[in-house]
Amino acid sequence: MLRKLICNATVLPFTQQADGSLDLSPQSVDVLMEGDRISQVAPNLEIAADQVVDATNLLLTPGFVDAHTHTTVGILEKCGYEALPLEQWMLYLPPNEKLSSRVHYLCTMVAALEAVKNGTTTMQDDIYALPYTPPEMFEAVARAYVDLGVRASLSLHAINKPLHETVPYLTDQLKDEQKQSFIAASFCTPAEWEAIFRQLYRDWQGQANLITTMLAPSASQRVTPELMYRIAALSEEFNVPIHTHLLETRMQAVTGSEFFGESVIAYAKRHGILTHRTTIAHGVWLSQADIDLVADAGATVVHNVVSNHRLCSGIAPIRELVSRGVNVALGTDGMDSFNLFDVIKMAGLVHSTVDEKHESYPRAVDILKWATYGGARSTLLQNQVGAIAPGMKADFVLYDLNSLSFTPRNQLPIHLVYSERGRSIRQVYVNGQLIVKNGQVLTVNESDLLAELSEHLKEYYAYREQWHQQSKALRPLMDAAFQKMLTQPLPIQRFNVAYGDHSHASMRVSEEALQMSS
User: How many percent of the chain have pLDDT more than 90?
Assistant: First the structure.
């Protein structure tokens, strides 16, 4: 078994303490790796090793966990739109399951390259496709992570209800033939979907010591009760996470009362998919009753703060969730960037704008916990990644402490949250393998991959333009449903309304702001 010794490093161990916080006190120690795991962390280790790395003036921390992202759609639609709420934005996303497996491979590779070069060593990739993720798409995505050497938790995304049955007020705007076209769309039956998952689990769970699987009902309003029950049973049988989008937008807050007579959180619980293995992406419009349900279940909420702002969704009640003991993680959502440092800094800033109670604002140590342990807990890998300790996977990052981001050298956790952007990273290890050195990825040829993707994009943009022509007919109908939603009263508010006229009745989405980028 190969031994590698990191000597004289400044280590932030990120190990969990009795009160649930993480130990982020700097320690000058050596770190011994044996195979894919850390075996010893102690000062002045005098042990023979196959490789020795002098880490003097280098900071060693666990790699980050991007707990919610979508790589293919995140790359293909990167910086394509702005000032579009989620419901309108989704109209313009072409069904990417029709793309070749090679395109999915390249998109995942490019996204993961950006992530790992900026300190993310584990990605929870919800492989988004409409109406479901074909096995060949899953396999192409998984192969990209294996070839690059980055850890990934991958989903079989599921939607098995037509669009107009998932968005309030939209059905009132549609003609019968439009409804029939949605109903006629190809959907997996719950039994077919379960069979696909079982096969993917057999083929990929634990593959290359990097890949794990998860179950992804897109949202409780987008799947049938039968499918939710099957997913709950599979999660119990295989002990794998359930990953779902809940209460991302104000529209989704209205959805529960309009369609089910209860919150979509309560609806998810009633059908078995709100458990201690559940991860909720976004959770912006959680009420206090919803927060209590999430806390009682032991579920995780992923704070996709950059995406929440880019898609006009609002400010998630993270401080309320933390006060109830809910596990919080961070995710890029594949929104314009796969650099988790963008999310980390914004997560540290945004919650200081909701009130003047500065004593309860998140601290750097809190945000770094969300970026490591919180994400690891979301993937059910908290006993393997997210800390520098014997027995943990050797997934870690080395930063140059003599860089601009750490000069002058004050409180290292605060430097990581508010000053560092990934520019100080010198080395990244996953499973004990050196993946990044001085800004260069060692396992694949980045320039060749980018060039190949550029060639494929020419065909994609022609396909995309055809889809956008179809979407233009639906846009006014979705806008009308959106405007009706804004008039519905809610007991909570997730926008900062301290300045200007932001009453729901007066909120209007301007045509200029919503103009689609060609």
Answer: 86
